[in-house]
Amino acid sequence: DTEVxxxxxxxxxxxxxxxxxxxxxxxxHRAMYWYKQKAKKPPELMFVYSYxxxxxxxxxxxxxxxxxxxxxxxxxxxxxxxxxxxALYLCASSQGTGVAGPWDEQFFGPGTRLTVL
Amino acid sequence: xxxxxxxxxxxNVAEGNPLTVKCTYSVSGNPYLFWYVxxxxxxxxxxxxxITGDNLVKGSYGFEAEFNKSQTSFHLKKPSALVSDSALYFxxxxxxxxxxxxxxxxxxxxxxxxx
Lengths: 117, 115
What we know:
Chain A is mainly β.
């Protein structure tokens, strides 16, 4: 199985809502990523988990809260978002991270299209 | 600072003609270079990568890329373009961030293949 799955595909939420994005991979990858992507722009890294521990937080606002319950799952909890947070949220995984695997490609899920009203 | 540049926002090519999407990079140390493609309303798909060795790297869907160290370039090529190749293409370089690595992305090149 070489697939990264993400749910939901689409999400519309108000600024006071709490919601969660889910990501799953069964490739045995030890690194997992959250990206935010605006239309026709490159993805912006938000968080990196390495061996289920948060290793990179790109100064993301606290209204975004990542969680890695186990080596296959990655969640992104959303609370009190702003309209400018509307974007495509991509999850990715790779075999390694850090100096052990700088050449490992990342496998991306299809993304969650988030709209904040 | 490590960086990637894609000098063309848009590339137009006729179906059946060869295509080139350009990428130049600036890194310290060994460059680990990647190409990804994004079809409309989809996630990114890995096409190919350069680690070391042969300067011509072959990847998915008939794409290849040529690594040129002296010109610090990693251009993506395909001998004969298909309409279905129309998509957004990103070049990226693996960059060291503390004990971790992250990808530094180019701004992307939109490829349009005309029938």
